[in-house]
Amino acid sequence: MRIKVLLIFFLTFSSSLWAAAKIEHWQTEHGSRVYYVHTQNLPLVDITVGFDAGSIRDGDKHGLAALTAAMLDTGAGRWNADDIAKRFESVGAQFGSSASVEMASLSLRSLTEKPLFDKAVTTLKTILSQPTFNPVDFQREQKRTLAALKHREESPGAVANLAFMKALYHDHPYAYPSLGYRETVAQLTPQDLRDFYQRYYLANNAIIVIVGDLNRSQAQQLASSLSAALPTGQKLEPIPDVPMPKIGSMQHIPFPSTQTHILAGLPGSARKDPDYFPLYVGNHILGGSGLVSRLFKEVREKRGLAYSAYSYFSPMARKGPFIMGLQTRNDQTQKALQVMKNTLSDFIRNGPSEEELIAAKKNITGGFVMRFDTNRKLSQYVTMIGFYQLPLNYLETFQDRVNAVTTEAIKDAFSRRINPALLQIVTVGGQ
Amino acid sequence: MRLLLLLLLCPFFVQAAQPEVYEKTLDNGLKILVKPDRRSPVAVSQVWYKVGASYEPGGITDISHMLEHMMFKGTHKHPAGEFSRIIAENGGRENAFTGRDYTAYFQTLEKSRLAISFELEADRMRHLNLLDAELQKEREVVTEERRMRTDDKPRAKTHEHFMAMAFSNSPYKNPIIGWPSDIAHYTIDDLKAWYHKWYAPNNATLVVVGDVDPDAVFKLAEKHFAPLKPSKIKPVKPQTEVEQLGPRKMTIKLPAKLPYVMLGYKTPSLKTAQQEWEAYALEVLAAILDGGNSARLSSRLVRGQQLAVSAGAGYDLYARMSSLFMLDATPSVGKTVFDLEYALKEQIYQLQRELVSDEELQRVKAQVLANNIYEKDSNFYQAMQLGMLETIGLNWQKADEYVKKIQHITPEQIRQVARKYLIEDHLSIAYLDPQPIKHSTPSRKVAGGHHAH
After folding, report:
1. Interchain pair B377, A327: CB under 8 A
2. Catalytic residue among B20, B23, B56, B68
3. pTM to 2 decimals?
4. Is CATH 2.40.340.10 the right assignment for the domain spanning A249-429?
5. CATH class for domain B19-225?
């Protein structure tokens, strides 16, 4: 009984937090979309500038977007890599830039004390607008990427991931790793990077996310000045739809490891998917809730077959992957794979029980505030909302939409979207 | 925030008011630390036990970690699975971790649900139901965990062998996840003995950070933990490492793609240093080498000379026993691990010969100050720091002193510790010598429908 009382108490509290974490949104005169949340208590700010310039824009030059993003802070304006690093670190600022499959981003965490903040922001603006892609730096960073790609081949898990994404997406841009392949990265030139930068690092292709202790007018000024430093350009071509596989597949890659890594899945859900919530809540029960999920119980708790066993949807602009995964001693591979498949098909055939659904809803809604209880986590959420242009009240309505999911809706969504006969399965390991 | 700027620009300062930590010890010896942070209506609660891999005698390595797994297997009041089910149903996040010097359990919950965490943690502190059938399954799980973390990772395995060589008699020579034959052979009685030996209120620290009132937390803790009986805890034997009498080197041959080298010098920790400042000077020295992209290893070895594709340095300030100052690096194409060993040592020699510049030192100190603020963004991190300090036998006030102690370190002190501790006779080196990986071409692709069974 006590727990029920606490629940009501909690709901009143969570609404008061919302007032504090309100997302303000506007567009700069140069066409960048700005998302701003004012947080107080700590004298810091997290700034993210994101572009639709992830590896889906690589064409056949796989690794181009990632190397472009990685090189931004190796030279800009009249500064070299040392100058840039010293400028940030002398004021205690933290800078990073990288590209994932869909987004390239520059992120800066700085103190808000004016002289420190100003020096960090001036540096960010220069990196953003005047990167030099100097040939000497290029050769070094290219070699470092090639070494990282070679290192990837030491890991059975990484080898499995590559093969799995290829099995799901074939020639769709989602099939390719954002870091690229050794053969493609070796062919890149500084001019490729300059061209890519000029085509995609545009004010009207950018989102600017500001979460921290800056007031609205400071945030406006910051966003305008970052946006004004960038040129504008043509609209981008849309990302192609993802075709669903017609038949199931299974491949084994021999690897001298003690464990076999098993991945099984299909193209899953999109960010703005009408089935998003039933799939999300359903997967929470299937393999998304850590120590209490069905997969975890069947694979680990009941049979001790693996240390980790999970499933998740990784929603993207188009259908991102639905993935089930585990690692097990080589000679148990078939057994573990069978348990994984049975758990999925039982879930699809019978759906979750009412009790499981209630427990999942309590877990998701009861732990909701923990998803953004730090400035950094909040900033990551707002970046996701901004980049995919989800409704600004996405977080406010999230709990209601979770609560509206029924066992029938889950069963229905899973049976339409996840056909076990079409599973793409990859195993990597020894005999 | 005027103050902050002054702090960054001025090398010697005494830091102003810190956020407060409230402390209380129950009659049964349980120590409670509470740090209010009201930014979000949540609280993290952690229970830290003074036991970990470095407490384990030969033959039962991993037993602290194995017991950590078994702590989720139920009590008479809450049978297996109940703990996690209740926490999940209350929207909580939970897990546990084992280190060389500690075993810790945590839950993050909406703040009004703290009682749930206390009730469950108090129950399993003294009333764990250790069953042989559960051990047999969990032994398999831990073996899989070891394969995943160590056996199939060439660098992790190199590190494991390296530690076993670097230490002669210190228990830091053993991996936290244990040696395979130990994992395979302990019995349920070994686990029961380990549990009864170390799991008691007077061997634990309860840390709560979040939107809470300290007095209310103390009262709640009193209600749930006060009825627990204390144990007689026998202090662990010191097992002080003998002096190393010359450099040690090893080659590890494993299927891998890249060569790799690691170097470790025997150094004291804050707990074991004869003079406290020496430990802080080693901490600053590590930052001079690897405190960001402007630090020496990145700017000189990766960018300047382009000998390495990556290089790092690290020091264990917070350890119960003396540990290692570590360096590691991956050579660029055409360079060898021996080139890198030479280059890394050259960086050490330079620190022994020349004083670091004021500008360089200021940059390290600016980062320490800023990080001290950034870290306050995470309740979990703050609780970790308090819990760890208490558990390794320092007190939590050390967390508050950190910035001040670092600010006082001088170029002379950095040179002094480089000369005293980073010496050839106390050095161990491991080279990873990559062996071919049998080529991973997809062998067969079976197309066709799979039946949904």
Report:
1. no
2. B68
3. 0.93
4. no
5. alpha beta
Q: pLDDT tens, B34-78?
A: 999 998 999 999 999 999 999 999 999 999 999 999 999 999 999
Kindly compute the dihedral angle of the four CA atoms of residues A106, A112, A114, A118, in this order, to the nearest 10 degrees: 0
Which residue from A311, A357, A308, A166 is spatially nearest to A251, judged by alpha carbons?
A166
pLDDT in tens, B392-451: 999 999 999 999 999 999 999 999 999 999 999 999 999 999 999 875 454 444 444 343
Pick the CATH number of A23-228 from 3.30.830.10, 2.40.50.100, 3.60.10.10, 3.20.20.30: 3.30.830.10
On whether the CB atoms of residues B324 and B166 are closer than 8 A, the answer is: yes
For A307, which of B85, B91, B141 is closest by C-beta distance?
B141
B332–A255: do the CB atoms touch at under 8 Å? no
Q: Is B363 close to A253, i.e. CB distance below 8 A? A: no
Predicted ipTM? 0.92
Interface contact A244, partner B, CB < 8 A: no
A292 vs B1, B84, B303: nearest CB: B84
